[in-house]
Amino acid sequence: MAKLEGKIALVTGSGQGVGQGIALALASEGAAIAVVGRTLEKLEATCRLIEARGSEALAVECDIKDPGSLSACVDRVVSRFGGINILVNNAQEVPLGSLEAVSDEAFEAGWQSGPMATFRLMKLCYPFLKGDGSIVNLASTAAKRWDASHYGAYAAVKEPIRALSRAAACEWGPDNVRTNVILPHAKSPGLKGWIEQNPEEASAFMASIPLRRIGECEEDIGRFVAMLCSEEARYINGQSIAVDGGQAYMG
Predict the structure, then answer these.
(1) Would the pTM count as exceeding 0.70?
(2) CA 97 to centroid of chain Cα atoms
(3) pLDDT at 192 over 90
């Protein structure tokens, strides 16, 4: 029997990249997937890939910066599938650049799509997750960099997600809701663009990864998330886990 047979997963930003990889991996283990994001065409493409693997999928257009859109998203997923067992907060806009270069608007978009969206969606899903739920939130190792130049704003909108996740793990653990964080390196469209724009820094970045490669969205990141949401990881709660080939030291 598949590890996640009968489970319902809501994955934000699953029209492409890491979110899509996670959605596909969860579907391969038997979960039905609510594919959530901004671009319907991309969401429907992911749904077709999921359905080809024999799992159910629902495309849900959603602006994660809008509380009303998040609430409507959860209502639609529950109406279609009857509940939610797994929540993956993946989607986020990230402000990159020096402190002087990052605008207030870019920073605010990172805050609203990251910590605020995570905070809101966890609370919306909590009543359905009680009993056997798993939350996986995505953060970043940007705050672990020795030289934080040009990554301060990025780290600043990712680190609060770890704090919120730890609180959820402690407050909701008695209800058998587990909350964990992954900090991944993966071949996402965003990372690809960064590599193309910063070839020298990207080369040094690659050399700093002990495994000497960037993770695959489904095979490396998605499958780990699927395991983390399964009974095999039922005692893992409140942890931040770097899924990055050994680059970051989380101690």
Answers:
(1) yes
(2) 22
(3) no
